[in-house]
Automatic annotation (TrEMBL):
<comment type="similarity">
    <text>Belongs to the endophilin family.</text>
</comment>
<keyword id="KW-0963">Cytoplasm</keyword>
<keyword id="KW-0175">Coiled coil</keyword>
<dbReference type="GO" id="GO:0061024">
    <property type="term" value="P:membrane organization"/>
</dbReference>
<dbReference type="InterPro" id="IPR027267">
    <property type="entry name" value="AH/BAR_dom_sf"/>
</dbReference>
<feature type="domain" description="BAR">
    <location>
        <begin position="5"/>
        <end position="170"/>
    </location>
</feature>
<dbReference type="InterPro" id="IPR004148">
    <property type="entry name" value="BAR_dom"/>
</dbReference>
<dbReference type="GO" id="GO:0005737">
    <property type="term" value="C:cytoplasm"/>
</dbReference>
<dbReference type="Pfam" id="PF03114">
    <property type="entry name" value="BAR"/>
</dbReference>
<protein>
    <submittedName>
        <fullName>SHLB2 protein</fullName>
    </submittedName>
</protein>
<dbReference type="InterPro" id="IPR050384">
    <property type="entry name" value="Endophilin_SH3RF"/>
</dbReference>
<dbReference type="GO" id="GO:0016020">
    <property type="term" value="C:membrane"/>
</dbReference>
Length: 170
């Protein structure tokens, strides 16, 4: 009732401290930017949307995500197979073997980067959103409910005093 009356402009609303309001605004801003950064980093690390959904499902089911071959490693595999077909002694075969080995190392470095970024960067962001932010939201709801209770009590006291004053006059 108090919430509805406040929204309709029929009841007074106790204002929170300006510093506290600023903290709430900063917390909201932090949450929004953290979500955006987390999503965009996930897109950068795994551009394939269906693979991201699959990884998300594995994560929610607490299962290990199967290891994927990176594009660099796949290219290295193709180059090595082609080199074997052309002959490792031919100039083209030798070149394919050298470039394939370099691609393999690049693919392994990419895999390590993805693993490292996920552990060192994405995990703390997720921990904030799933842990700290939930706590902040819960405490904010409790505060809002307490404020509404306080305002409702203030309104009752005000009505009682008005009724008392009216009774004293008559």
């Amino acid at each position: 009732l108090q919430f509805t009356e406040e929204k309709l402009g029929q009841a007074e609303k106790t204002e929170l401290d300006a510093h506290f309001e600023n903290l709430l605004a900063r917390a909201d801003c932090t949450k929004n930017w953290t979500e955006k950064i987390l999503r965009q980093t996930e897109v950068l690390l795994q551009p394939n949307p269906s693979a991201r959904v699959e990884e998300f499902l594995y994560e929610k089911l607490d299962r290990k995500v199967p290891s994927r071959v990176t594009n660099g490693e796949l290219l290295a595999q193709y180059m090595t197979e082609a080199a074997n077909d052309f002959g490792p002694g031919t100039p083209y075969g030798k070149t394919l073997i050298k470039v394939g080995e370099t691609q393999r190392r690049l693919g392994a470095a990419e895999r390590e980067f993805i693993r490292s970024a996920s552990i060192s960067f994405l995990t703390p962001l997720r921990n904030f959103l799933e842990g700290d932010w939930r706590t902040i939201s819960k405490e904010r709801r409790i505060l809002q409910n307490r404020r509404l209770d306080l305002d409702a009590c203030k309104a009752r006291v005000k009505k009682a005093k008005a009724a008392e004053a009216k009774a004293a006059v008559t």
